Target: HTH cro/C1-type domain-containing protein
Amino acid sequence: MELFPDLLRAARLTLGLTQDELAEAAGISTRSLMRFELGREDMTIRTHKAIRQALEARGVVFLKEEGGLGPGFRIPPNHPRVPRRSRSKRRP
Model:
């Protein structure tokens, strides 16, 4: 699955990662990551894999395009950036 710049950036921001943090985790330069997110640079297969693995190691699950819907991602429900659901009981 191709990792589109907007999808990559959305996953990174959802996890609360800076470009520096993701670049370091992926073993690439911050400049390369920044240029890719802006759509100014194509990634090698190796770089693509490194970024994907860095995000997946933090719980991101990438979703393929399916049923007329574009690609996306999920993060674990217990991730600190995910709002907790209210457990208040409804009263009749």
Remarks:
- Residues 69 and 92 are 39 Å apart (CA to CA).
